[in-house]
Write a sequence for this structure.
């Protein structure tokens, strides 16, 4: 009798603590700010940066038409014509390598409000997404963050705090790149945990759930490393709203021959957009959750012999713009230099040359064909890197004319995924050194489990960090079992 009363009281206390904790996610306390912008350096085009795409809830039949705004180039957010896009990404913010929370520097304090003020009142409206990472980030920081449940929770909590404080509609991870299978396993755990906490935060605060997206390598297997690790396609399909394969930067101006850095097709290699997109579909990511990347910049070379000037021609180094020109600069270069412009049907890309200068790039025609390719594969849409590089919105307009049929609608996906989400634990929280688990269930309830009632929960929990996805799945299964008071398959999510 006495024992029962004590237990009830404890559960009540824990519930109060948990409720407070959940609520504390929403009124975000500003972090301390520092004076140095942590954003990447290079003004002008940032070809190596890879942003992710965005969905378009305002006009689902149009699909996701997204673009990244590089906050560090000086291109004003107020110049963005929102009529071409459904989602605009703020690029970038980084996690602190020491605390794993997002580091909102004084640069961000200035730039994020500029971005939000410029876009929030726009008609047509666009969704805004906070992108975390970018090519300038140290990938090992992400590797550390995802390596255990607590650091993941700290990071996730911080992303929600910053996104809510400034009024973003979603968060985007741009980790370039996970380097091995362990990173990939942990990335899967991050996505699962992130989505679960986003669902919970939405229920607890009664606000629209934040979107969860991720910019990823052009293919589902990262060929940059040996052995090449594979992204967790199944988990991405279940927990991420969409991914944005960065289908560009296939070649560099340091190569001793010219190339199309974002070729749709390449008969001689697998480094092409069509191959990359197909690999993502084969990895079980539903096509409507794939948002194909397209560059608004080209790569340049200096030809060895001006008379040998096709794709693959011998080159002796970078060309104009130190290897990179954005589309508006390319149009200008071609006109000023009376360049010869060739459309290459095989690669679906253009190139131009004048004297010994050579540029490979996407133009209005290739972008239209790529958007049609995305349409033909029922993809969710496309995204551009980056705003400020188009020539009078001509490329943005060409893309917008192509209606995507792989309809992405937050409602559709939620309905389809509802079965999974409702079956899983929305959130779990370990209090008092694993003595108690506090769970918010998928149907909005919060339940507390005393580990004494389920002896092996703490043990299973202890295995998670060490053993990865499989055990995390088991844990969810076990927790569900406890909450419902009946046994369930250990293969709940397999
Ligand atoms: C945040 O970024 C600034 C600028 O790069 C840096 O000086 C500061 O140490 C960072 N803070 C943390 C907590 O990492
Ligand atoms: C989440 O962030 C909020 C706001 O800063 C903070 O009060 C809370 O303690 C954080 N929770 C965790 C688990 O980090
Ligand atoms: C949640 O928000 C909706 C409007 O967005 C409102 O109609 C509803 O009453 C709210 N529910 C709670 C429990 O506050
Ligand atoms: C391209 O990938 C396919 C299957 O992944 C493989 O069979 C083929 O050998 C690859 N081709 C090249 C040129 O690497
Ligand atoms: C421009 O190039 C074309 C051939 O590509 C040539 O016929 C024409 O004379 C050139 N015009 C000028 C002004 O150089």
């Amino acid at each position: 009798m006495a024992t029962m009363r004590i237990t009830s009281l404890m559960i009540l206390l824990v519930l109060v603590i948990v409720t407070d904790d959940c609520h504390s996610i929403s009124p975000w306390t500003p972090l301390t700010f520092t004076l140095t912008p942590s954003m990447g350096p290079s003004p002008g085009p940032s070809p190596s940066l890879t942003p992710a795409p965005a969905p378009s809830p305002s006009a689902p039949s149009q699909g996701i038409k997204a673009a990244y705004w590089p906050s560090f180039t000086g291109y004003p957010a107020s110049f963005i014509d929102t009529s071409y896009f459904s989602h605009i990404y703020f690029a970038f913010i980084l996690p602190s390598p020491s605390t794993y929370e997002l580091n909102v520097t004084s640069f961000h304090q200035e730039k994020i409000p500029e971005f939000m003020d410029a876009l929030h009142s726009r008609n047509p409206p666009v969704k805004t997404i906070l992108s975390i990472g970018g090519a300038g980030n140290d990938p090992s920081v992400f590797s550390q963050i995802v390596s255990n449940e607590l650091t993941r929770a700290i990071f996730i909590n911080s992303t929600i705090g910053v996104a809510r404080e400034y009024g973003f509609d979603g968060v985007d991870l741009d980790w370039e790149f996970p380097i091995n299978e362990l990173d990939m396993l942990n990335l899967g755990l991050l996505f699962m945990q992130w989505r679960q906490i986003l669902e919970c935060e939405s229920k607890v605060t009664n606000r629209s759930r934040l979107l969860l997206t991720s910019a990823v390598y052009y293919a589902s297997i990262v060929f940059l490393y040996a052995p090449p690790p594979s992204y967790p396609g199944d988990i991405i399909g279940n927990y991420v709203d969409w991914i944005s394969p960065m289908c560009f930067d296939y070649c560099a101006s340091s190569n001793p021959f010219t190339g199309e850095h974002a070729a749709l097709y390449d008969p001689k290699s697998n480094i092409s957009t069509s191959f990359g997109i197909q690999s993502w579909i084969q990895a079980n990511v539903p096509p409507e959750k794939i948002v194909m990347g397209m560059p608004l910049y080209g790569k340049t070379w200096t030809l060895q012999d001006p008379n040998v000037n096709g794709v693959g021609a011998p080159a002796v180094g970078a060309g104009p713009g130190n290897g990179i020109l954005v589309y508006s600069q390319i149009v200008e270069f071609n006109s000023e230099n009376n360049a010869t412009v060739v459309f290459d049907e095989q690669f679906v890309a253009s190139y131009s040359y004048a004297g010994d200068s050579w540029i490979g790039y996407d133009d209005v025609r290739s972008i239209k064909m790529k958007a049609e390719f995305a349409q033909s594969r029922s993809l969710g849409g496309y995204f551009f890197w980056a705003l400020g590089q188009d020539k009078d919105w001509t490329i943005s307009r060409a893309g917008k004319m192509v209606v995507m049929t792989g309809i992405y609608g937050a409602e559709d996906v939620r309905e389809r995924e509802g079965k999974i989400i409702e079956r899983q634990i929305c959130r779990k929280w370990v209090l008092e050194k694993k003595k108690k688990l506090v769970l918010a269930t998928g149907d909005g309830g919060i339940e507390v489990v005393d580990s004494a009632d389920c002896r092996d929960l703490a043990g299973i929990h202890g295995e998670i960090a060490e053993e990865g996805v499989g055990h995390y799945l088991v844990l969810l299964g076990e927790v569900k079992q406890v909450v419902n008071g009946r046994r369930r398959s250990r293969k709940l999510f397999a």
Notes: The CA atoms of residues 133 and 174 lie 5 Å apart.
